[in-house]
Write a structure and sequence with these properties.
The N terminus is likely disordered. The longest helix has 18 residues. Helix 3 packs across helix 12, helix 5 packs antiparallel against helix 13 and helix 13 packs across helix 20. With about 775 residues, this protein is of the alpha/beta class. The protein contains 21 helices and 30 strands. It has a 6-stranded mixed β-sheet with strand order 1-2-5-6-8-11. Helix 6 links the parallel strand 5 and strand 6. The protein starts with a helix and ends in an 8-residue tail after the last strand. The protein binds beta-D-glucopyranose. The site of beta-D-glucopyranose has 10 residues, from loops.
Length: about 775
């Protein structure tokens, strides 16, 4: 009731029906701030709550206001011309309700590829164009701020949200996020870069204390956010749920004000993650400007703190002003008349095309691209039921998902559908059986990523017929994951039935001299070492969005040569990852050990010690020379490339590296070049090498060459010296390694750098 009065009053006020009071659209922010009462100010920094919820009955952000199914709205103050603005998820596309009560129209959004696929493109221009298409849907469906991108580091393969994050490397994560933000914000809508920071696990995410050294924070966990802030100027940032060294991130002035604003120069707004933190007054004092989705308790906490003097009105005003600035730049204040008709058809093409560049060819003994293939046998439940993306707030309500079966048929293949009905029935019954095991009183149940069904193993007779009738077999293995849940150790391995299916199909087809291709429709890293030698090719398709089956088919048939490369390492064993020592593996089964290698047996999900420091991903595997299944930066192509004429120059401000890449194969293709740096001897422990820049060629015809120029600031040669609390570049000779992957360095060059030091605040310390 209160809300609807406010909203209709807001409409009147925006239409200019009141006079006297300053109006946000026309007056300065300072004037509006001055005209606000204390009560209005406190309301204004708190969101409007969730649909039918007092904060205890809903799980994923959802409001019925203005744009049903959006995650939240801001508090309107009609007398001052302040409308309610709409905040909606991401990051694989806009998440709103697809249908509305008493409304025959539909509000489907495009499900674009997941974050990990976008980062696997290593193509910032392409990511920007995907962001631009997403931003158009945000704008045309009436949202103002898109709660994306998400760029937490892939610290461990089992983090349930890795699918929406980008990489184990901060440069890949930061550059990808920056491109995405630039693209979305071209539409005059905002982004909320999340989750700031250290949100690297889902287990006990709202209570977990991440214990991290300042060096690892600065070099690994904050670096990507720093790049995004400096290169793309996001409208907003979302703080994370967890604590850092004892303090909730949303209550950490060190993080949100000292580092983010004072050091990096961030000018926008910080909002909490939904219900994040435990003290609203501390959040405001820290500079966490807006609390979402908003609760009555938060209002009381802030009012009490103002009364007892632990929070001043001046401190509150800082946040109120930033909230006013955000609303002032929103489409709502400008009175934008959204159409509810984004160009879904054009965006289907964007998602289909962009997915092609992020798929990673892991193995190929010459079977791909498919030649002389007409009749195709498809196996694996996921071939019939493709996974477009992950679950939770990152889900997108799309109109359809193209399966591999349909993708192949669309391309004109004769797909053997003899087992289709059996598969579909089996998938449905396994899904239903799983749903029946869920506790209806557990709110999280609805978001549980439904496990892939047990695989059907064809009988000998069925296999004989299949081999006889088909030229090739394609098996898809899928994985689903999502917000709230970390993956289990079992999820990392192929299941028994998946292995049995692979064994049976490869044996049968190979006996007849026919080939088998495996497609991985997964959101994160899985074990491949024990089986990747069995099929003739393995294509890592990721979760490629709603056009998934068409995109996979385009790669299989060679419409485009694969050019994606891994933004993370595929370890041979889960326990090879340094962070496995300190990650809540299978915490739900109560077998979590704070230090698994020493097997101290302490069950504790309240804290996670990032004991590996900066040695995350390839930095760890390289340091200890640990063999891996596929190294960071790896990916095959249908063609091959030669690198030549490497050169590097340091003018004191910028490093400029050039290298010439030539397509020496038979088909056209693009190549990603990765520029790693090896530092000279230093008093600090340094990684063997670190990625500093990367680039992708245009599509090179056979025989064609291109010289790529890669640049980065010389200051980025620095490591963070904790003792001095400063970024330090050591004087000396630096090696620049031009790699086709982190373990395939094609050529090198050297350049000198002078010593330099940039002081940083002594904050975020371990306690
Ligand atoms: C997620 C955020 C999301 C928010 C709003 C939270 O549960 O962690 O990523 O933006 O909900 O839906």
């Amino acid at each position: 009731m209160k809300k609807s009065i406010l909203i209709s009053a807001a409409v009147l006020a925006l239409a200019g029906c009141q006079s006297g009071d300053p109006q946000l659209g026309k007056s300065s922010v300072d004037k509006v701030l001055k005209a606000m009462t204390l009560e209005e100010k406190v309301h204004f920094v708190i969101g409007m709550g969730m649909a039918g919820s007092d904060g205890t009955t809903a799980v994923v952000g959802s409001t019925e206001d203005i744009v049903p199914g959006a995650a939240g709205t801001t508090y309107p103050i009609p007398r001052l011309g302040i409308p309610s603005i709409v905040l909606a998820d991401g990051p694989a596309g806009l998440r709103i309700n697809p249908t509305r009560e008493n409304d025959p129209n539909t509000y489907y959004c495009t499900h674009f590829p997941i974050g990990t696929l976008l980062s696997s493109t290593w193509n910032q221009e392409l990511v920007e164009s995907v962001g631009e298409a997403m931003g158009q849907e945000v704008h045309e469906y009436g949202a103002d701020v898109y709660l994306a991108p998400a760029l937490n580091i892939h610290r461990h393969p089992l983090n349930g949200r890795n699918f929406e994050y980008y990489s184990e490397d901060p440069v890949v994560a930061g550059k990808t996020a920056a491109a995405y933000v630039r693209g979305v914000q071209k539409n005059d809508v905002g982004t909320s870069v999340k989750h700031f920071a250290y949100n690297n696990q889902e287990t006990n995410r709202t209570g977990n204390n991440a214990i991290i050294s300042p060096r690892a924070q600065r070099e690994i966990y904050l670096k990507g956010f720093e790049i995004t802030v400096k290169e793309a100027d996001p409208w907003t940032i979302m703080s994370s749920y967890n604590k850092i060294n004892g303090t909730y991130t949303s209550q950490s002035r060190d993080l949100i004000t000292t580092v983010l604003r004072d050091e990096w120069g961030f000018k926008g707004l910080v909002m909490t993650d939904w219900y994040g933190g435990d003290n609203a007054a501390e959040q405001i004092a820290a500079g966490n400007d807006m609390l979402q989705p908003g609760t009555v308790l938060q209002y009381q906490q802030i009012m009490e703190a103002l009364k007892d003097g632990s929070l001043t009105e001046a401190q509150l005003d800082v946040c109120v002003k930033r909230c006013l600035e955000l609303v002032k730049r929103s489409p709502k204040v400008k009175g934008y008349q959204y159409s509810n008709k984004p160009d879904l058809q054009a965006h289907a093409t964007v998602t289909r095309q962009s997915a092609l560049e992020g798929m990673v060819l892991l193995e190929n003994n010459g079977v791909l691209p498919l030649k002389d293939v007409k009749n195709v046998a498809v196996y694996g439940c996921t071939s019939f039921d493709f996974v477009a993306g992950g679950t939770g707030s990152g889900n997108v309500n799309r109109a359809y998902t193209v399966s591999l079966l349909d993708g192949l048929k669309n391309a004109g293949f004769n797909v053997d559908e003899s087992a289709k009905e059996t598969y579909l029935k089996h998938i449905e019954s396994e899904k239903a059986a799983f749903q029946a095991t869920l506790d209806p009183n557990n709110m999280l149940s609805a978001f549980y990523p439904v496990p892939r069904p047990t695989e059907l193993i064809p009988s000998a007779k069925e296999l004989i017929a299949s081999v006889k009738n088909n030229d090739i077999a394609i098996i898809t293995f899928g994985r689903n994951s999502g917000e709230f849940f970390d993956r289990s150790a079992a999820d990392f391995e192929l299941s028994k039935s998946e292995k049995a299916l692979l064994t049976a199909v490869t044996a049968a087809f190979h006996t007849a001299g026919k080939k088998v291709v495996v497609v991985l429709n997964v959101g994160g890293v899985i074990e491949t070492h024990s089986w990747s030698w069995m099929p003739d090719a393995v294509l890592l398709a990721w979760q490629a969005g709603q056009e998934g089956g068409n995109s996979v088919t385009d790669i299989l048939t060679g419409v485009e040569s694969p050019s994606g490369k891994l933004p993370m390492t595929f370890p041979m064993n889960l326990m090879d990852a340094a962070s496995s020592d300190n990650f809540p593996i299978d915490a739900t089964k109560d077998v979590y050990f704070i230090n698994r290698r020493e097997n101290t047996g302490v069950k504790d999900i309240d804290q996670t010690d990032y004991a590996e420091g900066i040695y995350v991903g390839y930095r760890w595997f390289d340091k200890h020379n640990i063999p891996v299944s596929y190294p960071f930066g790896y990916g095959l192509s249908y063609t091959s490339f030669e690198y030549s004429e490497p050169a590097v120059q340091n003018n004191g401000k910028t490093i400029t590296a050039t290298v010439t890449v030539k397509n020496v194969g038979e088909v056209a293709g693009k190549e990603v070049v990765e520029l790693y740096v090896s530092a000279p001897e230093s008093s600090l422990d340094k990684p063997v090498k670190e990625l500093k820049a990367y680039g992708k060629t245009k599509k090179l015809a056979p025989g064609e060459s291109q010289t790529l120029t890669l640049t980065f600031p010389t200051a980025e040669l620095a490591s963070f010296d904790e003792e001095a609390s400063a970024w330090k570049v050591d004087a000396g000779t630096y090696q620049f390694l031009f790699g086709a992957s982190s373990r395939d360095i094609r050529c090198t060059a050297e350049a000198e750098a002078a010593a330099s030091e940039v002081p940083a605040h002594r904050v975020l310390l371990k306690q």
